[in-house]
Amino acid sequence: MGKITGILMFVVAIGTVLLFKFGSALWWFPHGISENAGPIDAQFNRTLTVVAIAFVAAQIALGYAVMKFGRKGDARAVYTHGSNKLEAVWTIVTAVVFVFLAILGQRVWISLHLTAAADNAARAEVVAQQFQWNFHYPGADGVLGKTEAKYIDDSSLNFVGLDPTDAAGRDDAQLTTLIVPKDRQVELTLRSKDVIHSFFVPALRFKQDTLPGMAIKIHFTAKEEGKYEIPCAELCGSLHYNMKTNMVVIPADEYDRLVAMPEEKIKEQLGELLQRYQYQ
Amino acid sequence: MTDVVHPVHGEVHRHPAPTSFIRKYVFSTDHKVIGIQYWCLALFSVMVGMAMSALMRLQLGWPGQEWGFLKTLMPNAAETGTISGELYLSMLTMHGTIMVFFVLTTAPQGGFGNYFLPIQIGAADMAFPVLNMLSFWITFLALVVLLSAPFADSIAPFLGMDAASNVIGPIGGWTGYAPLSALGERAGPGQGLGVVLWVTSIALFCIASLLGALNFITTMLNMRTRGMSLMRLPLTCWAWFTTAVLALLSFPVLLAAGILLLLDHLALTSFFIPANEYVNGKLVTDHAGGSPILWQHLFWFFGHPEVYIAILPGMGLTGHILATFSRKPIFGYRAMVYAIFAIGLLGFFVWGHHMFISGMSPYSAIAFSLITLTIGVPSAIKTFNWLGTLWGGQIRFTTPMLFAIGFVSLFVSGGITGLFLGQTSIDLPLHDTYFVVGHFHLIMGVAAIFGMFAGTYFWFPKMFGKMMHEGMGKLHFLLTFIGVNAIFIPMHIMGMAGQTRRYSFHWNPVTGEGLHYLSNMTPLTRFVSWAAFFTITVQLIFLVNLVWSLAKGKRASENPWEATSLEWTISSPPPHDNFAGVEPVVHRGAYEFSVPGASKDYLMQTDAGGPAEVHGD
């Protein structure tokens, strides 16, 4: 039984390594397109190396121990209560490695959450609701109109609650597809009308919950044109699985022309944009 | 009359066993009966929870498919034979809540802890037997309330509520995030009476766990027999004790949160509901001033220690069993005890790692992240010492030993991926994906359940006086170990690919609906489903073994495993008052195996003769 159990541990170790090694050709992170995707993937791979070594070492040691130290007749086991020296060395080694990883693991987070967006960033608002993503663009004047909950009226398509008395809001557009410029920083303000949702763009390696009563600013730069999906990642009710839309990354000059247009014009062009790109 | 004749000590605690069926088996105050009651409750619950996993994996692998048997099984919830999004989410909520509370929290602590803590420390019962009985029956009531939640539709009319609005059970996951869980029916199906019953059940469970925790702590500190100093305690006792401390400090917070949520639901308070909500086409005017993130802080302040409540008893038992069947003392006994404390203590400072992307301060996320990775250190110490205990042993491969070895393997596989999730940057893509599902199922789900299996195979002879069938046990271990790895390791890759949690499907290859970036995941998803069906099926071996062993199992001797702790000094099953009125006296630690100069390869804790105790650690 010791042999079989030992072999099982080897199989778990080797099988997992093979799955990750060869499975990665088929199944892995989707292609990353943000400035953060590279560093996040690199940190993932660094951690993966540490984890793989520790995982394989532990499983192989366990497998070896159960194969090697099976009962032999009436022989007695080694009588030892342990070794403080080994204990101390092991504790220090793991503590150093783990804390080192933890510190490296903050870098993208800091550049993402603790630095302000550039002044020339393209700005828009994300307003989540059961079970739809709304995107609020500032229009030709570049200023987002005031919004208030009391003006929200889903039946007349004022999903974000634009204040009809605010002049800055007259040229604003409300879309259900996110359009962003390529190679220019984007700053989004994330809000929710009802419950908690989560703005997840796998291609950006990014996720942030949207909360009612809070406005959370985030920023990123998309480096490649294309069409990318945005699923909701926080359980938000019965149709949660159906709450998804697209992010379209287009050349910056085209973006500038497009978002300066009135809402109906943008909507007319959206169909073509969504056709232009294949899902990544 | 002033001269009271005091009875002889020892007679005081010798109360006769109850004779009526009700007092003996139902409303019993005997910790052994209560332990078995908890264990049975967990066994029932795990079967319900597992049945739901099977149905969920059916939907995930073959989305939208019609299944004839479902029409018969659930004529209301699945009248067309398909699993709707609502039904899926309702089952998911029930699965998580049942498994976390009524399986992972009850069997290791309420079950084995109740039965064996008093015996292992040499006591006749728990400190507060009536409280003990109450905590079981409140847990039972909590389970009944939870299981009624999916039938909210049928219950509503009796409570004078509108029936049509409660489609199917609660929808919210086991975490029940507010404000979705606080807004009631206006937030959609499954948010009305279903959620009220769900949170009531959790609140009841909190009360029961609190009573239990008080009892465990008092018992272990006050009722140890003569000679049972703290450093002679079996590691199981340390694990149960630390678990009880965690429960004592964390369940009240969840209880408070649950009461606040109920008030938001039923009394128009606004603890979790902010102003100016616009829900389902209507402005919410009756709530203002709440915080949507507060629930998460309260929930995870409980929720993270809860992970350790589930796993610590398994960790204690694993060390205990590894030493017993390696015939070796625990490698680094003191380090193991301190590591249990360290895990318990650090467990209270890391709840924020569940909330990196919740909208809380990004600065506190960094602090939580750094503390989280340090929790890996005591976990690594434990793993190192388990290996050290095996090293140089004379291992006897009994079924409990195999499950303990499996526990170590799964603990490593499940724990080590915490190194990814604990880093804020890597959590950005992985949060709320199957990477998390794989991680926590391996560690707090399957590893903890391996602990329970190990406990069952190990203590069954003591509890029921019969040996379990070793052949069936070994087969059960082999197939289950293969099965759980095949289910949960591929889930990590699904999560990396961006497969979101709590979706009733990701890609439907028949209709072409779903998320396109996941359209190539179908083979892996189906593989996991098949692995789940396989694993669930092989659990029948365990059930058959239980029934067979109860009926036909070989009679168990007093100490069939040649183990050292006090439960093996008394008959199997033990008498009503455990030690038949004779207070045991302890002379040495719990892991004196292969002591040089001893006549046999183990010394019982009660053995007065033989070589003197050495403190090698």
Secondary structural class of chain B: mainly alpha
Counting DSSP E segments of at least 2 residues, the number of strands of chain B comes to 4
Task: Calculate Rg of chain B over CA atoms.
Answer: 25 Å
Number of helices of chain B: 19
* Strands in their spatial order, largest beta sheet of chain A: 3-2-1-5-8
Rounded average pLDDT of chain B: 93
Low-confidence segments of chain B, given as residue ranges, are 1-12
Helix-strand topology string of chain A: HHHHEEEEEEEEEEHH
Which sheet architecture does the biggest sheet of chain A show? 5 strands, mixed
Q: What descriptors fit this protein?
A:
heterodimer; A: 280 residues; alpha+beta; five-stranded mixed β-sheet; three-stranded mixed β-sheet; 10 strands; 37% helix; B: 617 residues; mainly alpha; two-stranded antiparallel sheet; two-stranded antiparallel ribbon; disordered N terminus
Describe the protein in words:
- The complex is a heterodimer of chains A (280) and B (617).
- With 280 residues, chain A is an alpha+beta fold.
- Chain A has 6 helices and 10 strands, in the order H-H-H-H-E-E-E-E-E-E-E-E-E-E-H-H.
- In chain A, strand 6 (197-201) and strand 7 (206-210) form a beta hairpin.
- The radius of gyration of chain A is 26 Å and the shape is elongated.
- Chain A starts with a helix and ends with a helix.
- With 617 residues, chain B is an all-alpha fold.
- Chain B is 58% helix and 1% strand.
- Chain B has 19 helices and 4 strands.
- In chain B, strands 1-2 form a two-stranded antiparallel ribbon.
- In chain B, a hairpin with a 2-residue loop joins strand 1 (278-279) and strand 2 (282-283).
- Classes of the chains: A alpha+beta (280), B mainly alpha (617).
- At the A-B interface, helix 1, helix 2, helix 3, helix 4 and strand 7 of A face helix 4, strand 1, helix 12, helix 13 and helix 14 of B.
